[in-house]
């Protein structure tokens, strides 16, 4: 039987697995995955930099092949895969990976899109100048050296590091049971914080955070919010919200726009973003994008996202932030090796650990320099002895058979030297080298030479025997004594060590600091999308089949009464424009559906379109049910407590509810009013409890009553009777009378209308049939709209074919209530007027009662099919009102 071991010991499998696995875990943690807090490097990075330093491949020397560096590292220090070693070298040369690259690469070192670097036989490298600050004073015994993997070489256990490289360049790694993810920072800010801590060790961490407000990524972009960043600095765990830097460009004459991405979040590739975006477009998870392409080149990042006509760039961009990596989170997990153990550190602890390291480095460097200075002073003393006794020493050397005998002869006797006495008079026993007794040297009998002195005398050149050399030796000795005094002073005064550290940090900052690349948006939680939207007045239209769009108000210039107007929207067959209002992009829109539910929008969320575009289905903006449609809309500035929403239905039912009840609707909508079966909401208005309410029917009747006749009710209430209607009649408009100086403009489906002083509409109780507002003759047709106007104002009229005209109110003559009116708009064959809207200046709105453009006329238009209409040429109309010769005079003035 074969015997495998001379002696065996039983051991628990569980204990062996635990011990072996812990050994393996600590080996990975310490030897591969986690950086050292002192120099911010993992072993492979440290070995690469050291190997390049040893081969003198520095910033002012020629490049060498990366294959040579990788070979040196593998053969001498890092017995692992060449691929992993080369990838580590490549990362240190990528300007999009490190905030301050440590390796200067020449050739293809990859791209931020994920392209790999060329093979190491093609690329070349050398150390960057800033890497020299990590390796400075390495040969002055500032750090411990340890044997390499086979014991044939020595390598540093840590680099001296003159700046906090771990915070400056960051690090990431996954170990066993733990990971680290430290973001890069701006060198100038980190050095400033280090100097502040050096000056005041008791400084509060909040003061350090004010100096280092956030990370600074090599790819720039925007840091969106600092609350979680500050938490990371305080506790070692936090997150950084990053957003791409973008701008919007016009790409054609029709107003189409494109979102241009100039900078991406850290560690996000452009092709990666575009691939994900293309996938989401195919899945119809995002709309409004017509084309994607990557135009990045050597000049920088440029991703182009072309939008469809009518899309609002800010809205699309907000969706991109939510759904793609244009907004990304960097998780701060500040784990590093401190005294050989992995620990979570906050910002102050990182800087304290670095300063402890620097204090040790400066102290060890000073001790090394002191030893070298003492040794040099001791050698100078021996040279002075030789110059003073040159004849005797030459004779002794000539008589000696071998150098060793000569050395023993020099050390075996005492020498008289006045020069040495003068030199030693300037020094004390503290200046002796550490390896010699304090009293060694000049004794009562003379000066005794040490072994280093005797060896140096034997190596002297004959030219050193001249008289001039004595002066040089004396001068150098004085300098050495001064250096020794200074070094001893440094070692005895910690404040001098701090001053040296501060001076070296300031020098690093002066040479390598640069401006921030990542912009900081401090209070992201207080920044809303509307802050990015330019306030402007827009015309919002909603078609019968639910297509909505917004157009700048400036696109419509005032025309003469009777003009043909501009095309406001291209409608499809069986569709026509049904709703129209003027609002500011920062206003709210309450949308009320045929099922009595309310939905909430911002005006800037309505897609903008050209004057001929159809717009976008409103069902894409709201979460409505399949058989639900919007049939009343109300623009609102703010949800004030003293304002009410006044409702009117086509069956003459009215209701008043506090506006604040609608301030926070759910995405799926909230109950707005309880409707009877078959009834629909025709209008809503804002009121304040101090005005009269007017209802107009399509039969030409109007009723006016005090709004306080209707008590405030809850959202789920049905309401009360506001107007009695004849069989088949319906209410088409709701108005809130502001003052007696206003006029009421009524319009009929055949394009006729008139302006009547509001004083002619006397107040009656609610629930009556009302009084005549305008004659509904065969010429006029039924009433389709009514609104309050002022003489200096303007109105918009729109047909079911999509034609819109803007005209001045003062061009429409004031007439009595029972007249037929005059021509407001020339209609095409089969075309009907669907509604009108009063246009108020913003100043007028501010000076009013708060209703402003919120006094909406939601006229129910004729549902006759409208033919597909094209652009209509603008045409002027007559300045004066002239009677229509084909219409008989009814005795109430021109018709």
From TrEMBL:
GO terms for molecular function: ATP binding; DNA binding; DNA negative supercoiling activity. One of its GO terms (biological process) is DNA topological change. InterPro entries: GyrA, GyrA/parC_rep, Gyrase/topoIV_suA_C, Topo_IIA-like_dom_sf, Topo_IIA_A/C_ab, Topo_IIA_A_a_sf, Topo_IIA_dom_A, Type_II_DNA_Topoisomerases. Residues 843-895 are annotated as: Disordered. A motif (GyrA-box) lies at residues 559-565. One of its GO terms (cellular component) is DNA topoisomerase type II (double strand cut, ATP-hydrolyzing) complex. Gene3D superfamilies: 3.30.1360.40, DNA gyrase/topoisomerase IV, subunit A, C-terminal (2.120.10.90), Topoisomerase II, domain 5 (3.90.199.10), Topoisomerase, domain 3 (1.10.268.10). Residues 858-869 have a biased composition (Low complexity). It comes from the Bacteria. SMART domains: TOP4c. Keywords: ATP-binding, Cytoplasm, DNA-binding, Isomerase, Nucleotide-binding, Topoisomerase. It holds the Pfam family DNA_topoisoIV. CDD domains: TOP4c (cd00187). Residues 34-532 form the Topo IIA-type catalytic domain. It is found in: Cytoplasm. Its main location: cytoplasm. NCBIfam families: gyrA, PRK05560.1, PRK05561.1. Heterotetramer, composed of two GyrA and two GyrB chains. In the heterotetramer, GyrA contains the active site tyrosine that forms a transient covalent intermediate with DNA, while GyrB binds cofactors and catalyzes ATP hydrolysis. Few gyrases are as efficient as E.coli at forming negative supercoils. Not all organisms have 2 type II topoisomerases; in organisms with a single type II topoisomerase this enzyme also has to decatenate newly replicated chromosomes. Belongs to the type II topoisomerase GyrA/ParC subunit family. A type II topoisomerase that negatively supercoils closed circular double-stranded (ds) DNA in an ATP-dependent manner to modulate DNA topology and maintain chromosomes in an underwound state. Negative supercoiling favors strand separation, and DNA replication, transcription, recombination and repair, all of which involve strand separation. Also able to catalyze the interconversion of other topological isomers of dsDNA rings, including catenanes and knotted rings. Type II topoisomerases break and join 2 DNA strands simultaneously in an ATP-dependent manner. This is DNA gyrase subunit A. It comes from Usitatibacter rugosus. The lineage of its organism: Bacteria, Pseudomonadati, Pseudomonadota, Betaproteobacteria, Nitrosomonadales.
